Amino acid sequence: MNTENGQPLSIKEIKNAYTSAGKKLEADPSDANMATFDKLKDVSDGLKQAQYLDRKEIAQEKALLNPSRSNVMEMAQ
Prior knowledge:
Blueprint: E1 3-4, E2 7-8, H1 11-27, H2 31-65, H3 69-76
Antiparallel strand pairs: 1-2
Helix pairs in contact: 1-2
């Protein structure tokens, strides 16, 4: 599912496949289309979760490296 001709798919390609599968499912709600859409939904949800965790980790690192203004003021006292 995550490779095409032996090459990994990009996030954009996965999102496009997810959108396309959703449109196919709307036009023809067959079991095969539902199964394809469900697989792509799981992949898409996993990507969203991974991106969220990455952003959260980066924000936490920045907070540790750059104390907020209130923390700087407390240190000065």
